C-alpha cells in the first residue's frame, strides 16, 4: 500500500467516526491493515487538509489523551457528549467506537 492509498484509507475511517465516539491512532492503523503504523496515522491526520472537513478531534491516543497542541479538541468532544476521566483523558470504555461490534449487529 503506497502512502497516498494509506492516507486515503485513514481519512475514510476518520470520516466515518460517529459523533460522540472516538478511535485511537492504533485502532485506525489496525482497521486499514497496517497495525504497526499508528504514528503514520498521526502523520496523516496532521497533514489532512481542512477542505476534507474530517472530524479529526475524534482521534485520540491509546490512553485517551488529546493532541497536546490543540486546546479546542476537548471542547469539540465535550460538545458531542464525550466523557472524560478525572485525569483529563477520554473515557475510552464509555466513548470508544466499537466499530466491529456495530458492524456485526
UniProtKB/TrEMBL annotation:
Reactions listed under catalytic activity: a 6-O-methyl-2'-deoxyguanosine in DNA + L-cysteinyl-[protein] = S-methyl-L-cysteinyl-[protein] + a 2'-deoxyguanosine in DNA; a 4-O-methyl-thymidine in DNA + L-cysteinyl-[protein] = a thymidine in DNA + S-methyl-L-cysteinyl-[protein]
- Enumerate the spans annotated as Methylated-DNA-[protein]-cysteine S-methyltransferase DNA binding domain: 6-82
The catalytic activity of this protein is classed by the Enzyme Commission as: 2.1.1.63
Q: Name one GO molecular function term.
A: methylated-DNA-[protein]-cysteine S-methyltransferase activity
State whether keyword Translocase applies: no
Keywords assigned by UniProt, alphabetized: DNA damage, DNA repair, Methyltransferase, Transferase
Q: Which InterPro entries match?
A: ATL_DNA_repair (IPR052520), MethylDNA_cys_MeTrfase_AS (IPR001497), MethylDNA_cys_MeTrfase_DNA-bd (IPR014048), MethylDNA_cys_MeTrfase_DNAb (IPR036217), WH-like_DNA-bd_sf (IPR036388)
One record GO biological process: DNA repair
This one is known as Methylated-DNA--protein-cysteine methyltransferase
Amino acid at each position: 500500500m503506497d502512502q497516498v492509498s494509506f492516507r486515503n484509507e485513514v481519512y475514510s475511517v476518520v470520516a466515518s467516526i460517529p459523533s460522540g465516539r472516538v478511535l485511537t491512532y492504533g485502532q485506525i492503523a489496525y482497521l486499514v491493515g497496517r497495525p504497526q503504523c499508528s504514528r503514520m496515522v498521526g502523520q496523516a491526520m496532521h497533514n489532512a487538509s481542512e477542505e476534507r472537513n474530517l472530524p479529526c478531534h475524534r482521534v485520540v491516543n491509546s490512553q485517551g489523551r488529546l493532541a497536546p497542541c490543540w486546546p479546542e479538541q476537548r471542547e469539540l468532544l465535550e460538545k458531542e457528549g464525550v466523557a472524560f476521566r478525572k485525569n483529563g483523558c477520554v473515557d475510552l470504555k464509555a466513548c470508544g467506537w466499537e466499530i466491529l461490534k456495530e458492524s456485526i449487529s
